[in-house]
Design a protein that fits this description.
261 residues; 15 strands; 4 helices; 15% helix; Immunoglobulin-like; 5-stranded antiparallel beta sheet; 6-stranded mixed beta barrel; alpha+beta; Barwin-like endoglucanases; secreted; Expansin-B2; RlpA-like_sf; single chain; elongated; signal
Length: 261
């Protein structure tokens, strides 16, 4: 019997170790990675579209305040604007977490100390509360900083792409923000075609806002816009910016990307 004791002890240790691995692996949902999350200002904050050029549009449809800022791992020097993420927190991370996922769009940058974490989401106050169990959002707000799981997902807004003419646009300068972009969500290229010109690449001005110089005598509206996603898919919105366009006006296209990655 004594001769078998070390073997039995080894077996017990092995079983305990395997049980630990199973428990540990079950804590992180398949396909997700780990991150840190905080929230904007207060529980009723819709967040911001500042660094991506979306301004206060994030508070209303199609974003409905379900947005987030991200550190450079997500923001990517503004090229990450528009990407969508599914995030959740479990009771292992905080007892007030529901474990139910929500989807948020990256619309702003979380600078400074957010970059002390490998991946950091600064979620709108409204969206942050939706991570909690029913009736326990206040406890999650009190925690302030929580661990979460996240994964990249396709954007799906159930609408076509919206183009908002930037407030600084004038007859010699045209800038436009693309909103409600399905699929990848983030863009690698925006091109413009005037009524009597070939396609001209625009320059990223800020986040999802792209700009170009205009010769009003020769480059006349209507303007068509061609968008290329991060994964090099393209869609064209013909004549989407009409003659007589105005700064801050929003023009709805008849196109969008497939809602998959």
């Amino acid at each position: 019997m004594a001769a078998n004791f070390p073997q039995c002890l080894f077996l017990l240790i092995f079983v305990a170790f395997c049980s630990y691995l199973v428990r540990f692996s079950s804590c992180q949902p398949s396909g997700y990675s780990q991150a840190v999350a905080t929230f904007y200002e207060n529980p009723t904050s819709p967040g911001s579209g500042g660094a991506c050029g979306l301004e206060n549009d994030v508070a209303s449809a199609p974003y409905n305040a379900m947005i987030t800022a991200g550190n450079q791992a997500l923001f990517k020097q503004s090229s990450g604007c528009g990407a969508c993420y599914q995030v959740l927190c479990t009771q292992d991370q905080n007892p007030h977490c529901s474990g139910n996922p929500i989807i948020v769009t990256l619309t702003d940058e979380c600078p400074g100390a957010c970059n002390n974490d490998p991946v950091h989401f600064d979620i709108s106050g409204i969206a942050f509360g939706k991570l909690a169990k029913a009736g326990e959002a206040s406890q999650l707000y009190n925690a302030g900083r929580i661990s979460i799981f996240y994964q990249r997902v396709a954007c799906n807004y159930n609408t076509n792409i919206l183009f908002k003419v930037d407030k600084g646009s004038n007859p010699n300068f045209f800038a436009v923000t693309s909103e409600a972009v399905d699929g990848d969500g983030d863009l690698s290229l925006v091109e413009i075609q005037t009524s009597n010109s070939s396609w001209v690449p625009m320059q990223r001005m800020i986040g999802a806002t792209w700009s170009v110089g205009i010769q009003p005598d020769t480059q006349k509206p209507p303007f068509s816009l061609r968008l290329t996603s991060e994964t090099k898919q393209s869609v064209t919105a013909p004549n989407v910016i009409p003659d007589g366009w105005q700064p801050r006006s929003i023009y709805k296209s008849n196109v969008n990307f497939p809602n998959n990655l």
